[in-house]
Protein backbone atom coordinates (compact mmCIF):
# COMPACT_ATOMS: atom_id res chain seq x y z
CA UNK A 1 0.00 0.00 0.00
CA UNK A 2 2.85 2.40 0.86
CA UNK A 3 4.52 1.49 -2.44
CA UNK A 4 1.30 2.23 -4.36
CA UNK A 5 1.00 5.67 -2.70
CA UNK A 6 4.61 6.46 -3.57
CA UNK A 7 4.02 5.35 -7.16
CA UNK A 8 0.94 7.58 -7.47
CA UNK A 9 2.85 10.58 -6.08
CA UNK A 10 5.75 9.90 -8.43
CA UNK A 11 3.43 9.67 -11.46
CA UNK A 12 1.64 12.90 -10.53
CA UNK A 13 4.92 14.74 -9.97
CA UNK A 14 6.30 13.50 -13.27
CA UNK A 15 3.02 14.47 -14.98
CA UNK A 16 3.78 18.06 -13.95
CA UNK A 17 7.25 17.77 -15.51
CA UNK A 18 5.75 16.27 -18.67
CA UNK A 19 3.24 19.13 -18.80
CA UNK A 20 5.97 21.77 -18.46
CA UNK A 21 8.08 20.25 -21.25
CA UNK A 22 5.03 19.70 -23.48
CA UNK A 23 4.03 23.34 -22.97
CA UNK A 24 7.49 24.50 -24.01
CA UNK A 25 7.40 22.28 -27.10
CA UNK A 26 3.98 23.70 -27.97
CA UNK A 27 5.42 27.22 -27.93
CA UNK A 28 8.40 26.10 -30.04
CA UNK A 29 6.12 24.31 -32.51
CA UNK A 30 3.80 27.29 -32.96
CA UNK A 31 6.72 29.66 -33.50
CA UNK A 32 8.42 27.28 -35.93
CA UNK A 33 5.15 26.82 -37.80
CA UNK A 34 4.70 30.59 -38.08
CA UNK A 35 8.18 30.95 -39.55
CA UNK A 36 7.61 28.09 -41.97
CA UNK A 37 4.26 29.46 -43.11
CA UNK A 38 5.70 32.93 -43.61
CA UNK A 39 8.62 31.59 -45.65
CA UNK A 40 6.74 29.16 -47.90
CA UNK A 41 3.30 30.69 -48.33
CA UNK A 42 3.69 34.40 -47.61
CA UNK A 43 7.10 35.07 -49.17
CA UNK A 44 7.00 32.66 -52.12
CA UNK A 45 3.32 32.20 -52.98
CA UNK A 46 2.17 35.60 -51.76
CA UNK A 47 -0.63 34.10 -49.68
CA UNK A 48 -1.24 34.88 -46.02
CA UNK A 49 -3.76 32.38 -44.60
CA UNK A 50 -6.48 33.76 -42.33
CA UNK A 51 -6.10 33.08 -38.60
CA UNK A 52 -8.64 32.24 -35.92
CA UNK A 53 -9.39 35.03 -33.45
CA UNK A 54 -7.35 33.34 -30.71
CA UNK A 55 -4.25 33.74 -32.88
CA UNK A 56 -4.80 37.32 -33.97
CA UNK A 57 -7.33 36.83 -36.76
CA UNK A 58 -9.49 39.86 -37.67
CA UNK A 59 -12.88 40.19 -39.43
CA UNK A 60 -11.48 42.33 -42.26
CA UNK A 61 -9.51 39.52 -43.96
CA UNK A 62 -9.40 39.56 -47.78
CA UNK A 63 -8.37 36.49 -49.71
CA UNK A 64 -5.48 37.10 -52.12
CA UNK A 65 -2.82 34.84 -53.63
CA UNK A 66 -0.20 36.72 -55.63
CA UNK A 67 1.69 33.81 -57.22
CA UNK A 68 -0.90 31.07 -57.03
CA UNK A 69 0.69 28.89 -59.72
CA UNK A 70 3.73 28.50 -57.49
CA UNK A 71 1.60 26.77 -54.86
CA UNK A 72 1.98 23.19 -56.23
CA UNK A 73 5.75 23.69 -56.46
CA UNK A 74 5.93 24.98 -52.90
CA UNK A 75 3.82 22.14 -51.48
CA UNK A 76 6.00 19.69 -53.43
CA UNK A 77 9.16 21.34 -52.08
CA UNK A 78 7.83 21.08 -48.55
CA UNK A 79 7.08 17.41 -49.16
CA UNK A 80 10.55 16.81 -50.52
CA UNK A 81 12.27 18.41 -47.52
CA UNK A 82 10.02 16.46 -45.18
CA UNK A 83 10.72 13.22 -47.07
CA UNK A 84 14.48 13.72 -46.74
CA UNK A 85 14.30 14.43 -43.00
CA UNK A 86 11.98 11.50 -42.33
CA UNK A 87 13.95 9.02 -44.42
CA UNK A 88 17.34 9.82 -42.94
CA UNK A 89 16.53 10.86 -39.38
CA UNK A 90 13.09 9.85 -38.14
CA UNK A 91 10.89 7.33 -40.02
CA UNK A 92 8.39 7.36 -37.14
CA UNK A 93 7.63 11.03 -37.86
CA UNK A 94 5.78 10.16 -41.08
CA UNK A 95 2.00 10.08 -41.24
CA UNK A 96 -0.55 10.62 -38.50
CA UNK A 97 1.13 11.59 -35.22
CA UNK A 98 -1.71 10.54 -32.94
CA UNK A 99 -1.88 7.07 -34.49
CA UNK A 100 1.87 6.63 -34.01
CA UNK A 101 1.42 7.50 -30.32
CA UNK A 102 -1.48 5.05 -29.99
CA UNK A 103 0.59 2.30 -31.61
CA UNK A 104 3.53 3.02 -29.30
CA UNK A 105 1.18 2.83 -26.32
CA UNK A 106 -0.36 -0.55 -27.16
CA UNK A 107 2.86 -2.22 -28.25
CA UNK A 108 5.22 -0.56 -25.77
CA UNK A 109 7.35 0.85 -28.60
CA UNK A 110 10.25 3.24 -27.96
CA UNK A 111 9.56 6.92 -28.63
CA UNK A 112 11.83 9.59 -27.22
CA UNK A 113 13.04 13.15 -27.45
CA UNK A 114 14.55 12.70 -30.91
CA UNK A 115 11.10 11.77 -32.19
CA UNK A 116 9.61 14.87 -30.53
CA UNK A 117 12.16 17.22 -32.13
CA UNK A 118 11.91 15.67 -35.61
CA UNK A 119 8.10 15.57 -35.51
CA UNK A 120 8.11 19.27 -34.63
CA UNK A 121 10.36 20.17 -37.55
CA UNK A 122 8.80 17.90 -40.20
CA UNK A 123 5.22 18.85 -39.27
CA UNK A 124 6.06 22.56 -39.28
CA UNK A 125 7.49 22.21 -42.79
CA UNK A 126 4.56 20.10 -44.03
CA UNK A 127 1.87 22.45 -42.72
CA UNK A 128 3.83 25.64 -43.32
CA UNK A 129 4.35 24.78 -46.98
CA UNK A 130 0.62 24.30 -47.44
CA UNK A 131 0.12 20.62 -46.67
CA UNK A 132 -3.40 19.79 -45.49
CA UNK A 133 -2.33 18.53 -42.12
CA UNK A 134 -3.08 19.20 -38.47
CA UNK A 135 -0.79 20.50 -35.79
CA UNK A 136 -2.55 18.73 -32.91
CA UNK A 137 -1.57 15.26 -34.13
CA UNK A 138 2.11 16.19 -34.13
CA UNK A 139 1.77 17.61 -30.63
CA UNK A 140 0.09 14.36 -29.57
CA UNK A 141 3.17 12.40 -30.69
CA UNK A 142 5.53 15.05 -29.34
CA UNK A 143 3.79 14.97 -25.96
CA UNK A 144 3.75 11.16 -25.96
CA UNK A 145 7.47 11.13 -26.82
CA UNK A 146 8.17 13.49 -23.91
CA UNK A 147 6.22 11.34 -21.46
CA UNK A 148 7.75 8.09 -22.65
CA UNK A 149 11.22 9.63 -22.88
CA UNK A 150 11.19 10.92 -19.31
CA UNK A 151 9.86 7.61 -17.98
CA UNK A 152 12.46 5.63 -19.93
CA UNK A 153 15.33 7.80 -18.71
CA UNK A 154 14.20 7.24 -15.14
CA UNK A 155 13.88 3.47 -15.80
CA UNK A 156 10.28 3.32 -14.67
CA UNK A 157 8.14 0.23 -15.18
CA UNK A 158 6.37 -0.39 -18.50
CA UNK A 159 3.06 0.47 -16.87
CA UNK A 160 4.36 3.83 -15.61
CA UNK A 161 5.98 4.55 -18.97
CA UNK A 162 2.67 4.11 -20.76
CA UNK A 163 0.74 6.22 -18.25
CA UNK A 164 3.18 9.08 -18.82
CA UNK A 165 3.01 8.52 -22.58
CA UNK A 166 -0.77 8.92 -22.40
CA UNK A 167 -0.46 11.96 -20.15
CA UNK A 168 2.01 13.54 -22.57
CA UNK A 169 -0.33 12.91 -25.50
CA UNK A 170 -3.16 14.69 -23.70
CA UNK A 171 -0.84 17.52 -22.65
CA UNK A 172 0.27 18.17 -26.23
CA UNK A 173 -3.27 18.33 -27.56
CA UNK A 174 -4.62 20.28 -24.58
CA UNK A 175 -1.94 22.96 -24.94
CA UNK A 176 -2.23 23.24 -28.72
CA UNK A 177 -6.03 23.39 -28.76
CA UNK A 178 -6.10 25.50 -25.57
CA UNK A 179 -8.48 22.89 -24.23
CA UNK A 180 -6.92 21.39 -21.08
CA UNK A 181 -9.94 19.38 -19.94
CA UNK A 182 -10.40 17.80 -23.35
CA UNK A 183 -6.68 16.97 -23.40
CA UNK A 184 -7.05 15.17 -20.09
CA UNK A 185 -10.03 13.14 -21.29
CA UNK A 186 -8.35 12.39 -24.59
CA UNK A 187 -5.35 10.93 -22.77
CA UNK A 188 -7.66 8.16 -21.56
CA UNK A 189 -10.14 7.87 -24.43
CA UNK A 190 -8.21 8.00 -27.71
CA UNK A 191 -6.55 4.58 -27.35
CA UNK A 192 -9.83 2.68 -27.53
CA UNK A 193 -13.03 2.69 -29.54
CA UNK A 194 -15.23 1.68 -26.61
CA UNK A 195 -13.14 1.98 -23.47
CA UNK A 196 -10.92 4.20 -21.31
CA UNK A 197 -7.39 3.95 -19.98
CA UNK A 198 -8.62 4.93 -16.54
CA UNK A 199 -5.18 5.00 -14.87
CA UNK A 200 -4.08 7.75 -17.27
CA UNK A 201 -7.02 10.07 -16.63
CA UNK A 202 -5.74 12.00 -13.57
CA UNK A 203 -2.11 12.22 -14.79
CA UNK A 204 -3.54 13.31 -18.14
CA UNK A 205 -5.52 16.12 -16.53
CA UNK A 206 -2.50 17.26 -14.53
CA UNK A 207 -0.13 17.25 -17.52
CA UNK A 208 -2.68 18.90 -19.82
CA UNK A 209 -3.51 21.74 -17.43
CA UNK A 210 0.18 22.41 -16.70
CA UNK A 211 1.01 22.38 -20.45
CA UNK A 212 -1.89 24.77 -21.09
CA UNK A 213 -0.61 27.18 -18.42
CA UNK A 214 2.97 27.06 -19.70
CA UNK A 215 2.01 27.51 -23.36
CA UNK A 216 -0.70 30.05 -22.56
CA UNK A 217 1.78 32.28 -20.74
CA UNK A 218 3.36 32.96 -24.15
CA UNK A 219 0.68 32.36 -26.80
CA UNK A 220 -2.30 33.49 -24.71
CA UNK A 221 -5.13 31.82 -22.83
CA UNK A 222 -8.13 32.88 -24.87
CA UNK A 223 -10.00 30.17 -26.81
CA UNK A 224 -8.74 29.32 -30.26
CA UNK A 225 -12.01 30.46 -31.83
CA UNK A 226 -14.25 33.36 -30.88
CA UNK A 227 -17.96 32.72 -31.13
CA UNK A 228 -21.17 34.27 -29.92
CA UNK A 229 -23.44 31.30 -29.95
CA UNK A 230 -27.08 31.90 -28.94
CA UNK A 231 -28.93 29.33 -26.89
CA UNK A 232 -30.61 27.12 -29.48
CA UNK A 233 -34.27 27.57 -30.29
CA UNK A 234 -35.82 24.13 -30.38
CA UNK A 235 -38.35 23.50 -33.11
CA UNK A 236 -39.25 20.67 -35.47
CA UNK A 237 -37.20 22.34 -38.19
CA UNK A 238 -34.03 22.80 -36.12
CA UNK A 239 -34.13 19.30 -34.65
CA UNK A 240 -34.66 17.83 -38.12
CA UNK A 241 -31.76 19.93 -39.39
CA UNK A 242 -29.37 18.62 -36.75
CA UNK A 243 -30.58 15.07 -37.29
CA UNK A 244 -29.74 15.56 -40.96
CA UNK A 245 -26.34 16.99 -39.99
CA UNK A 246 -25.61 13.86 -37.98
CA UNK A 247 -26.45 11.64 -40.95
CA UNK A 248 -24.43 13.74 -43.39
CA UNK A 249 -21.49 13.87 -40.94
CA UNK A 250 -21.44 10.07 -40.73
CA UNK A 251 -21.33 9.80 -44.53
CA UNK A 252 -18.57 12.42 -44.78
CA UNK A 253 -16.58 10.66 -42.04
CA UNK A 254 -16.82 7.32 -43.84
CA UNK A 255 -15.63 8.96 -47.07
CA UNK A 256 -12.72 10.59 -45.21
CA UNK A 257 -11.55 7.35 -43.62
CA UNK A 258 -11.94 5.37 -46.85
CA UNK A 259 -10.13 7.99 -48.95
CA UNK A 260 -7.24 8.29 -46.50
CA UNK A 261 -6.53 4.56 -46.29
CA UNK A 262 -6.99 4.07 -50.04
CA UNK A 263 -4.41 6.74 -50.86
CA UNK A 264 -2.08 5.64 -48.09
CA UNK A 265 -2.09 2.09 -49.48
CA UNK A 266 -1.58 3.48 -52.99
CA UNK A 267 1.51 5.43 -51.94
CA UNK A 268 2.91 2.44 -50.05
CA UNK A 269 2.76 0.39 -53.26
CA UNK A 270 3.94 3.22 -55.49
CA UNK A 271 7.34 2.34 -56.95
CA UNK A 272 8.97 5.66 -56.11
CA UNK A 273 11.77 6.30 -53.63
CA UNK A 274 10.31 7.05 -50.15
CA UNK A 275 11.99 10.46 -50.14
CA UNK A 276 9.99 11.51 -53.21
CA UNK A 277 6.56 10.25 -52.15
CA UNK A 278 5.70 13.25 -49.89
CA UNK A 279 6.78 15.53 -52.75
CA UNK A 280 4.45 13.76 -55.19
CA UNK A 281 1.60 13.97 -52.69
CA UNK A 282 2.49 17.59 -51.94
CA UNK A 283 2.33 18.59 -55.61
CA UNK A 284 -1.25 17.34 -55.93
CA UNK A 285 -2.14 18.98 -52.63
CA UNK A 286 -1.05 22.23 -54.26
CA UNK A 287 -3.44 21.52 -57.13
CA UNK A 288 -6.20 21.02 -54.56
CA UNK A 289 -5.22 24.37 -53.02
CA UNK A 290 -5.71 26.06 -56.38
CA UNK A 291 -9.28 24.75 -56.45
CA UNK A 292 -10.05 25.90 -52.91
CA UNK A 293 -7.86 27.67 -50.33
CA UNK A 294 -9.61 25.61 -47.67
CA UNK A 295 -7.24 22.78 -48.66
CA UNK A 296 -4.12 24.79 -47.74
CA UNK A 297 -2.59 24.34 -44.28
CA UNK A 298 -4.94 23.95 -41.33
CA UNK A 299 -7.66 26.42 -42.48
CA UNK A 300 -8.68 27.40 -38.95
CA UNK A 301 -9.02 31.02 -40.09
CA UNK A 302 -11.67 30.04 -42.62
CA UNK A 303 -13.54 28.03 -39.99
CA UNK A 304 -13.45 31.13 -37.76
CA UNK A 305 -15.24 33.06 -40.53
CA UNK A 306 -17.95 30.42 -40.79
CA UNK A 307 -18.41 30.47 -37.00
CA UNK A 308 -18.66 34.25 -36.97
CA UNK A 309 -21.10 34.32 -39.91
CA UNK A 310 -18.60 36.47 -41.81
CA UNK A 311 -18.85 36.88 -45.56
CA UNK A 312 -16.56 34.42 -47.40
CA UNK A 313 -15.65 34.09 -51.08
CA UNK A 314 -17.37 30.68 -51.29
CA UNK A 315 -20.70 29.86 -52.91
CA UNK A 316 -22.80 26.92 -51.69
CA UNK A 317 -21.47 24.77 -54.53
CA UNK A 318 -17.88 25.70 -53.69
CA UNK A 319 -18.41 24.81 -50.04
CA UNK A 320 -19.80 21.41 -50.92
CA UNK A 321 -16.93 20.78 -53.33
CA UNK A 322 -14.44 21.93 -50.69
CA UNK A 323 -15.53 19.14 -48.35
CA UNK A 324 -14.22 16.53 -50.78
CA UNK A 325 -11.21 18.53 -51.92
CA UNK A 326 -10.01 18.96 -48.31
CA UNK A 327 -10.52 15.23 -47.70
CA UNK A 328 -8.45 14.53 -50.82
CA UNK A 329 -5.73 17.00 -49.80
CA UNK A 330 -5.56 15.55 -46.28
CA UNK A 331 -5.25 12.03 -47.66
CA UNK A 332 -2.58 13.06 -50.16
CA UNK A 333 -0.56 14.89 -47.51
CA UNK A 334 -0.53 12.19 -44.85
CA UNK A 335 -1.04 9.16 -47.08
CA UNK A 336 2.08 10.00 -49.08
CA UNK A 337 4.18 10.11 -45.92
CA UNK A 338 3.97 13.79 -45.05
CA UNK A 339 4.15 14.66 -41.37
CA UNK A 340 1.31 15.98 -39.26
CA UNK A 341 -2.01 14.94 -37.87
CA UNK A 342 -5.60 14.30 -38.77
CA UNK A 343 -7.23 16.13 -35.85
CA UNK A 344 -7.25 19.60 -37.40
CA UNK A 345 -8.19 18.65 -40.97
CA UNK A 346 -11.02 16.41 -39.70
CA UNK A 347 -12.41 19.30 -37.67
CA UNK A 348 -12.09 21.55 -40.71
CA UNK A 349 -13.94 19.02 -42.89
CA UNK A 350 -16.65 18.86 -40.23
CA UNK A 351 -16.83 22.64 -39.99
CA UNK A 352 -17.20 23.00 -43.77
CA UNK A 353 -19.86 20.27 -43.75
CA UNK A 354 -21.88 22.11 -41.09
CA UNK A 355 -21.49 25.47 -42.84
CA UNK A 356 -22.45 24.03 -46.23
CA UNK A 357 -25.51 22.25 -44.87
CA UNK A 358 -26.72 25.39 -43.07
CA UNK A 359 -26.42 27.37 -46.30
CA UNK A 360 -28.32 24.70 -48.23
CA UNK A 361 -31.11 24.49 -45.65
CA UNK A 362 -31.43 28.25 -45.31
CA UNK A 363 -31.69 28.53 -49.09
CA UNK A 364 -34.42 25.89 -49.14
CA UNK A 365 -36.38 27.62 -46.35
CA UNK A 366 -35.83 31.02 -47.91
CA UNK A 367 -34.78 32.47 -44.55
CA UNK A 368 -31.92 32.02 -42.03
CA UNK A 369 -33.50 29.25 -39.97
CA UNK A 370 -30.10 27.80 -39.08
CA UNK A 371 -27.21 29.72 -37.58
CA UNK A 372 -24.17 28.98 -39.75
CA UNK A 373 -21.81 29.37 -36.80
CA UNK A 374 -23.73 26.82 -34.72
CA UNK A 375 -23.91 24.35 -37.59
CA UNK A 376 -20.19 24.80 -38.22
CA UNK A 377 -19.31 23.91 -34.63
CA UNK A 378 -21.69 20.95 -34.48
CA UNK A 379 -20.34 19.71 -37.81
CA UNK A 380 -16.82 19.77 -36.37
CA UNK A 381 -17.95 17.71 -33.39
CA UNK A 382 -19.99 15.23 -35.40
CA UNK A 383 -17.51 14.46 -38.17
CA UNK A 384 -14.54 14.07 -35.88
CA UNK A 385 -16.49 11.88 -33.46
CA UNK A 386 -17.45 9.60 -36.34
CA UNK A 387 -13.87 9.63 -37.66
CA UNK A 388 -12.07 8.98 -34.37
CA UNK A 389 -14.67 7.29 -32.13
CA UNK A 390 -13.85 9.70 -29.30
CA UNK A 391 -17.22 11.34 -28.50
CA UNK A 392 -16.61 12.56 -24.96
CA UNK A 393 -13.26 14.26 -25.53
CA UNK A 394 -14.42 15.69 -28.87
CA UNK A 395 -17.48 17.43 -27.48
CA UNK A 396 -15.48 18.85 -24.57
CA UNK A 397 -12.68 19.80 -26.96
CA UNK A 398 -14.85 21.84 -29.30
CA UNK A 399 -16.77 23.39 -26.41
CA UNK A 400 -13.48 24.59 -24.90
CA UNK A 401 -12.11 25.76 -28.23
CA UNK A 402 -15.20 27.79 -29.06
CA UNK A 403 -16.81 28.46 -25.67
CA UNK A 404 -19.96 27.28 -27.45
CA UNK A 405 -21.49 25.48 -24.49
CA UNK A 406 -25.00 26.58 -25.47
CA UNK A 407 -25.00 24.26 -28.45
CA UNK A 408 -24.33 21.05 -26.52
CA UNK A 409 -28.00 19.87 -26.49
CA UNK A 410 -28.21 20.05 -30.29
CA UNK A 411 -24.65 18.81 -30.69
CA UNK A 412 -25.52 15.60 -28.85
CA UNK A 413 -28.23 14.82 -31.40
CA UNK A 414 -25.84 15.06 -34.36
CA UNK A 415 -22.89 13.52 -32.52
CA UNK A 416 -24.74 10.40 -31.40
CA UNK A 417 -26.31 9.86 -34.82
CA UNK A 418 -22.98 10.30 -36.57
CA UNK A 419 -21.28 7.85 -34.20
CA UNK A 420 -24.10 5.33 -34.50
CA UNK A 421 -24.30 5.40 -38.30
CA UNK A 422 -20.55 5.51 -38.97
CA UNK A 423 -19.82 2.76 -36.43
CA UNK A 424 -16.34 2.15 -35.09
CA UNK A 425 -15.13 -0.88 -37.00
CA UNK A 426 -12.58 1.28 -38.80
CA UNK A 427 -11.54 4.71 -37.57
CA UNK A 428 -8.90 7.12 -38.85
CA UNK A 429 -6.64 5.84 -36.06
CA UNK A 430 -5.70 2.40 -37.32
CA UNK A 431 -3.93 1.44 -34.10
CA UNK A 432 -7.00 1.95 -31.90
CA UNK A 433 -8.37 -1.24 -30.38
CA UNK A 434 -11.92 -1.84 -29.25
CA UNK A 435 -11.37 -2.34 -25.52
CA UNK A 436 -8.60 -2.66 -22.96
CA UNK A 437 -8.93 -6.40 -23.17
CA UNK A 438 -7.93 -6.24 -26.86
CA UNK A 439 -4.71 -4.32 -26.21
CA UNK A 440 -1.36 -6.18 -26.13
CA UNK A 441 -0.51 -3.84 -23.26
CA UNK A 442 -3.18 -5.50 -21.16
CA UNK A 443 -2.42 -9.06 -22.21
CA UNK A 444 -2.01 -10.16 -18.60
CA UNK A 445 -5.45 -8.74 -17.80
CA UNK A 446 -6.90 -10.67 -20.72
CA UNK A 447 -5.16 -13.83 -19.56
CA UNK A 448 -6.59 -13.39 -16.07
CA UNK A 449 -10.05 -12.70 -17.53
CA UNK A 450 -9.99 -15.86 -19.64
CA UNK A 451 -8.71 -17.97 -16.75
CA UNK A 452 -11.39 -16.53 -14.48
CA UNK A 453 -14.26 -17.23 -16.87
CA UNK A 454 -13.22 -20.71 -18.12
CA UNK A 455 -14.07 -23.81 -16.08
CA UNK A 456 -11.96 -26.87 -15.37
CA UNK A 457 -14.49 -29.15 -17.11
CA UNK A 458 -13.88 -27.25 -20.39
CA UNK A 459 -10.15 -28.02 -20.38
CA UNK A 460 -9.54 -31.20 -18.37
CA UNK A 461 -8.63 -34.53 -19.91
CA UNK A 462 -11.57 -36.84 -19.33
CA UNK A 463 -10.09 -40.11 -20.57
CA UNK A 464 -7.66 -40.61 -17.71
CA UNK A 465 -5.14 -43.40 -17.35
CA UNK A 466 -5.15 -44.70 -13.77
CA UNK A 467 -3.19 -47.26 -11.75
CA UNK A 468 -3.81 -49.03 -8.46
CA UNK A 469 -1.67 -48.82 -5.32
CA UNK A 470 -0.55 -52.42 -5.92
CA UNK A 471 0.88 -51.74 -9.36
CA UNK A 472 4.67 -51.56 -9.69
CA UNK A 473 6.84 -48.53 -10.32
CA UNK A 474 8.07 -50.21 -13.52
CA UNK A 475 4.55 -50.36 -14.92
CA UNK A 476 4.04 -46.67 -14.16
CA UNK A 477 7.37 -45.79 -15.80
CA UNK A 478 6.53 -47.73 -18.98
CA UNK A 479 3.08 -46.12 -19.31
CA UNK A 480 4.51 -42.64 -18.76
CA UNK A 481 7.16 -43.21 -21.44
CA UNK A 482 4.66 -44.66 -23.92
CA UNK A 483 1.92 -42.03 -23.41
CA UNK A 484 4.22 -39.04 -22.81
CA UNK A 485 2.58 -38.18 -19.50
CA UNK A 486 4.24 -37.04 -16.30
CA UNK A 487 1.68 -38.02 -13.69
CA UNK A 488 -0.88 -40.82 -13.12
CA UNK A 489 -3.70 -40.80 -10.53
CA UNK A 490 -3.86 -43.80 -8.21
CA UNK A 491 -7.41 -45.04 -7.63
CA UNK A 492 -9.29 -47.71 -5.75
CA UNK A 493 -12.75 -48.46 -7.16
CA UNK A 494 -12.72 -45.09 -8.96
CA UNK A 495 -11.79 -43.14 -5.81
CA UNK A 496 -8.61 -41.06 -5.90
CA UNK A 497 -6.20 -42.16 -3.19
CA UNK A 498 -2.92 -40.82 -4.56
CA UNK A 499 -0.87 -39.67 -7.53
CA UNK A 500 2.50 -40.76 -8.85
CA UNK A 501 4.78 -38.59 -11.00
CA UNK A 502 8.00 -39.03 -12.94
CA UNK A 503 9.93 -37.47 -10.07
CA UNK A 504 8.58 -40.19 -7.76
CA UNK A 505 9.72 -42.89 -10.21
CA UNK A 506 13.19 -41.37 -10.53
CA UNK A 507 13.71 -41.75 -6.79
CA UNK A 508 13.46 -45.54 -7.13
CA UNK A 509 16.66 -47.46 -7.88
CA UNK A 510 16.42 -49.03 -11.40
CA UNK A 511 16.95 -52.59 -10.17
CA UNK A 512 14.03 -52.22 -7.71
CA UNK A 513 11.43 -50.88 -10.17
CA UNK A 514 9.81 -54.34 -10.51
CA UNK A 515 9.54 -54.77 -6.76
CA UNK A 516 8.46 -51.34 -5.48
CA UNK A 517 4.69 -50.83 -5.27
CA UNK A 518 3.16 -47.47 -6.12
CA UNK A 519 1.59 -47.25 -2.65
CA UNK A 520 5.14 -46.92 -1.32
CA UNK A 521 6.13 -43.91 -3.47
CA UNK A 522 2.87 -42.18 -4.41
CA UNK A 523 1.70 -38.91 -2.91
CA UNK A 524 -1.33 -39.92 -0.82
CA UNK A 525 -4.49 -37.79 -0.68
CA UNK A 526 -3.29 -35.48 -3.45
CA UNK A 527 -4.56 -31.95 -4.05
CA UNK A 528 -7.71 -32.37 -6.15
CA UNK A 529 -9.95 -29.86 -7.90
CA UNK A 530 -13.60 -29.72 -8.92
CA UNK A 531 -15.01 -29.47 -12.48
CA UNK A 532 -16.77 -26.15 -11.82
CA UNK A 533 -13.71 -24.37 -10.46
CA UNK A 534 -12.19 -21.67 -12.63
CA UNK A 535 -8.86 -22.14 -14.34
CA UNK A 536 -7.56 -19.11 -12.46
CA UNK A 537 -8.24 -20.78 -9.14
CA UNK A 538 -6.61 -24.01 -10.30
CA UNK A 539 -3.59 -22.18 -11.69
CA UNK A 540 -3.07 -20.43 -8.37
CA UNK A 541 -3.15 -23.77 -6.54
CA UNK A 542 -0.74 -25.45 -8.96
CA UNK A 543 1.65 -22.49 -8.88
CA UNK A 544 1.61 -21.96 -5.12
CA UNK A 545 2.16 -25.65 -4.35
CA UNK A 546 4.58 -26.34 -7.17
CA UNK A 547 2.38 -29.01 -8.76
CA UNK A 548 2.24 -29.72 -12.48
CA UNK A 549 -1.19 -31.35 -12.49
CA UNK A 550 -4.18 -32.18 -10.32
CA UNK A 551 -6.84 -34.91 -10.45
CA UNK A 552 -10.39 -33.66 -11.03
CA UNK A 553 -13.00 -35.26 -8.77
CA UNK A 554 -16.80 -35.07 -8.80
CA UNK A 555 -16.86 -33.99 -5.14
CA UNK A 556 -14.68 -34.11 -2.06
CA UNK A 557 -16.83 -36.72 -0.29
CA UNK A 558 -16.75 -39.58 -2.78
CA UNK A 559 -13.46 -38.41 -4.43
CA UNK A 560 -14.62 -40.04 -7.68
CA UNK A 561 -12.14 -39.33 -10.48
CA UNK A 562 -13.69 -37.56 -13.51
CA UNK A 563 -10.58 -36.10 -15.16
CA UNK A 564 -7.13 -34.60 -14.79
CA UNK A 565 -5.83 -31.11 -15.54
CA UNK A 566 -2.24 -29.90 -15.93
CA UNK A 567 -0.43 -26.63 -16.42
CA UNK A 568 0.25 -27.61 -20.03
CA UNK A 569 -3.49 -28.14 -20.59
CA UNK A 570 -4.13 -24.60 -19.40
CA UNK A 571 -1.26 -23.28 -21.53
CA UNK A 572 -2.66 -24.95 -24.65
CA UNK A 573 -6.09 -23.49 -23.88
CA UNK A 574 -4.62 -19.97 -23.68
CA UNK A 575 -2.76 -20.45 -26.96
CA UNK A 576 -6.01 -21.58 -28.57
CA UNK A 577 -7.57 -18.32 -27.36
CA UNK A 578 -4.73 -16.33 -28.93
CA UNK A 579 -2.84 -15.64 -25.68
CA UNK A 580 0.81 -16.59 -25.41
Automatic annotation (TrEMBL):
Keyword Transmembrane listed: yes
Residue ranges constituting the CBS domain according to the UniProt record: 460-515, 522-580
Location(s) in or outside the cell: Membrane
Recorded GO CC terms: chloride channel complex
Membrane topology (UniProt): Multi-pass membrane protein
One GO MF term attached to the UniProt entry: chloride channel activity
InterPro entries (alphabetical): CBS_dom (IPR000644), CBS_dom_sf (IPR046342), Cl-channel_core (IPR014743), ClC (IPR001807), ClC-type_chloride_channel (IPR050368)
Pfam families linked: CBS (PF00571), Voltage_CLC (PF00654)
TM ranges: 12-30, 69-89, 163-181, 201-221, 242-261, 281-303, 315-336, 377-399, 405-422
Keywords: CBS domain, Chloride, Chloride channel, Ion channel, Ion transport, Membrane, Transmembrane, Transmembrane helix, Transport
Principal location: membrane
Name of protein: CIC family chloride channel protein
Native organism: Phorcysia thermohydrogeniphila
Amino acid sequence: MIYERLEVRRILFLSIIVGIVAGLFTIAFIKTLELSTHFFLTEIVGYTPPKPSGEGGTPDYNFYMEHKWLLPLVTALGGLITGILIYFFSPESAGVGTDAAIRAFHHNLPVGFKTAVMKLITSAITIGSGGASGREGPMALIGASIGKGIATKLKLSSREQNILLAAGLGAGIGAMFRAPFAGGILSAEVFYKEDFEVEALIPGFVASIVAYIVAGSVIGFEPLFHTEVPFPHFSKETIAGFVLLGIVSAVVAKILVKTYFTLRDFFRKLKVHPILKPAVGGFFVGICGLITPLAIGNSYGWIQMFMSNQATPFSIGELILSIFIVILALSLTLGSGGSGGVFGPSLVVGGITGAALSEVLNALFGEPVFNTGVMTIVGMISVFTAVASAPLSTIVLVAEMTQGYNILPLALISLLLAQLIAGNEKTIFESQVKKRIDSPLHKDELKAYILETAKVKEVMTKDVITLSPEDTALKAKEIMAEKFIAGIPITVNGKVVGIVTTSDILKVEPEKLKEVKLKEIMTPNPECVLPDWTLLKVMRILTSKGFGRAPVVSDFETMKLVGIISRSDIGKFLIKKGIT
